[in-house]
Amino acid sequence: MVEAAGPRDVSALKLPALGCVERDESGIWRMKGADGAPVTAVGWFLADFAATDAADSTLRSYAYDLLRWFRFLIAIEVEWQRATRRDVRDFVRWFREAPNAQRTRGHKPSSRPAAGTLNHQTGKAYLSAGYAPRTINHALSVVSTFYTYAVEAGLGRLRNPVPEAKRGATDSMDPTGTRRRTALRQKEPRREPRDIPNGLLEKVVSELTCERDRALLAVALASGLRASELLSMTCGGIDAGRNIVRIVPKGSSVPIWVPATPEAFVQLSRYMLTRKNFRLADPLWVTRRQPIRPLTYFALRQILERINIRLGTNITWHDLRHTFTHQLLSDKSVGVTDVQQLLRHRDLNTLSSYSATRVDELAVRLQAVDSQPKPEAFVAGGYNDADLQTLFPGVSLTPNERAD
Q1: DSSP 3-state helix, strand, coil percentages of the chain (rounded to 5)?
Q2: Element (H or E) spanning 229, and its range?
Q3: Which terminus has fewer CB within 10 Å in the chain: N or C?
């Protein structure tokens, strides 16, 4: 199919700050358009999606992805019903070039190292200044799902502008026969291990200044909870007798009980002694200053961000989940399926990003390998053996090997 027009110049394109995402009177997420009125098609889509028992956080995420798409269409002056593959392609091109505003939120431009640079303590790279490939792919999936719903619901003479994967299509250059990447989707790099070395973890613990933060870190390390799952905990959701806590897992709205190690409950008991006049249904984690209110994700992130500034690191709460998983996988008494269940992963293959060995561990193992042939060492006479051992540690020199 030949295009009527070539690619747009999106290098200087800025999305207008029009429209918003908010809850309606009944608490359901909705998206308002440039005119300030709710976008009916998006509202129906979110209501239909909510009926599938989607998590509240998922609905919010979808609403914001669609808001970005609608803002892009406003910037290029295209109605959403008339969007084509060309518009989706230019949307991806804009994504690849635009800076991510979340990278500088709450920070001065000079307070962080340059984007993409490697932290020498954690071995992790700082986030790039733009949008990650996974973010772009997620946005395309949301837009595609929205148009699929609109077509099936008969909201007009529409077609899905987002390319779909061809059934049975495989990459002929890949001997494993894996599915070929769908058009416009980005290549996602293989995730590196993000667990925290013991020495650095001890430094992080020593920087914690209150019982709340110590308990937060202890629970994260003892259970592998995600940040959103930590924040879902309530004062009544702690059963120290059975070593379990109650959370709302990612992608669901139904609370479940998950196990944690005994060390977490010691820290939790110390933290609970600082709470006054709480009810069992109250959020477990709250602010330290008045007025007392539930801890938000941004406030949770700032706990580690302040430590990062003092230590010169770039640790996140998800790194603690990786640390928890790395410790489990290193324990031969814990099965892989047990780790999968503890992490609440549907697919066992997801563990591959957690099971990779750190570079420093590989270096230690490589040094222990004694498979290289030992060359003969000859030395002229007159040298002191102690000096030679200092210069060449581990090299054995016998009288027969000395050369005059």
Answers
A1: 45, 10, 50
A2: helix 227-231
A3: N
CB 142 within 8 A of CB 156: no
- Residue 8 and residue 90: Cα distance in Å, rounded? 7
Architecture of domain 198-355: Orthogonal Bundle (1.10)
Q: Give the Cβ contact number of residue 305 at 10 Å.
A: 17
Q: What is the DSSP letter of 379?
A: E
Q: Can you give the length of the chain in residues?
A: 404
Domain boundaries, the chain: 20-152, 198-355, 374-404
Q: How many helices (H) and strands (E) does the chain have?
A: 14, 7
Residue 403, SS3 per DSSP: strand
DSSP letter string, 81-141? GG--HHHHHHHHHHHHHSB-GGGSTTS-TTSSPPTTPBPTTT-PBPPPSB--HHHHHHHHH
Task: Compute the mean pLDDT over every residue in the chain, rounded to the nearest whole number.
Answer: 85
